[in-house]
Design a protein that fits this description.
five-stranded antiparallel beta sheet; transport; alpha+beta; D-Maltodextrin-Binding Protein, domain 2; elongated; 14 helices; about 50% helix; ABC-type glycine betaine transport system substrate-binding domain-containing protein; membrane
Length: about 300
Amino acid sequence: MSKKFGIIFLTLICTVALLLSACGSNNDTGAETGSNNGVELGQKELTMPYVSWASTVAGVNVIKVVLEDLGYEIELTQVTPGAMFAGIADGSADMSVGAVTLPYTHKSYWKKYGDQIDDIGITMKDSVTIGLAVPSYMKIDSLEDLTNNTNNIGKKLEKTIVGIDPGAGQMQLTKNTVMPGYKLDNWTLQATSGPAMTGALSSAIEDHKPIVVTLWEPHWAFIEWDLKYLKDPQNLFGEPDSLHAVARKGLKEDAPAAYKVLDQFQWTKQDMGKVMVKVHDGMDPLEAAKEWVENNQDKVKDWKKDLKAAK
């Protein structure tokens, strides 16, 4: 009886030892690889360049919140459009969301850099429109009205279109395609920035003055004011674009979990608009993003499908 008890006791000790060994092994592996429910975090410090456009600011901050919840450290860097594409193409930057608009707006940049960049996929399909916009109180409705100087509009506007960053795809399309197409060669496309353009628009509307600006949707300006696009009979601005998430070559292998989030990231104009309006009303962009993420957990869970927080 004593011998039998000893064998049972020895068996129990061996079993416990094996279980402890297995648990220790799993903990060590998780610590070494940064495992995220089977998908490794990999490189934890990532850079995300962005252009200071309202839509882009909303997107990058939301993704920053989601990725940092998984255990990443995301550095946001404000750059020009050209620098954003060049940085991702040469690998000095890791990824971008919210600023790559295809197939029309950023056609020239994609032709130059596309084969050096990983197009992860569409984050907002056929929802981005661009054009020249005016306050609805203006008595012009088409780009042809600029050509024909309807209601002496050329003199009233001093033949000036208020634009954004000189390197923006919309600016290049307006200058190189739209203006020649509508015989606006003697007009000036004034390069400023996104915030400067909306500042000029705000001042003009406050004084009920005429103004024409380069604008895109989604943008909080269409929520704030009663605006209209000038019709484009020649369709030189193209059909609605899609927003794309992009990354440097190799990010999928270097930061698998981050890449998976970007691959599953999808939202709507309405989603983006909620963040943009909060920022426009004075909320810090990161705080606005955190609030949106907290209020939209069902959607965020889809982006983090098969992942779990590493914290």
